Amino acid sequence: MKPQKLLVATHNLGKLAELRSLLAELPLELIGLSDFDTVTEVEETGLTFIDNAKLKAAGYAQQTGSFALADDSGLEVDALNGRPGVLSARYGGDVGFDKKMQILLGEMKTSIHESRAARFVCAIAIAAPDGTMLHTTEGICPGNIAHEPRGNGGFGYDPLFVPEGFAETFGELSGTMKQKISHRARAFEQIMPFLRDFIAV
Fold this sequence. Notes:
Elements: E1 4-8, H1 13-22, E2 28-32, H2 49-64, E3 68-77, H3 97-110, E4 117-127, E5 133-145, E6 161-163, H4 175-181, H5 183-200
Parallel strand pairs: 1-2, 1-3
Antiparallel strand pairs: 3-4, 4-5, 5-6
């Protein structure tokens, strides 16, 4: 059976590779936004991860005429009252994640809360080519913030996040292990039944 194409609404090659691995059992050809020359960026103006995932899925589906999957994910830190949250990618301004992690650690040191508890959240939305929302789901991975970044694996805040039940950060854990326990993996576990039906149509 020829794989069906599904647009993943991202320019992030690391994220695209991770999703291809997560969905390896399905005969889907995943394509990214880089495969389209005339796509205009969809603004993430939502107040929640689900809101932003839906905005991106519908917006990019309509622009490309493709079925589109969008995710919005980020880090919520208890000591920072849930920040950076939906602003995770923009937190600290236009700087790399090495700098963002240092800014986050600096804010935690000045917080009145001593808790290092945190969670990664991933919301996923799938839209039809006309922008109609087909399915949404959300996955959560609880854990704690390390005292300093550790490991070179993953991307984003991974070297700073220690998932519950582990001593290693996402940056230190193997890709195989991360794919079993991450927020994105948990969200995809919930969306897999829909994707199987999607392929069968």
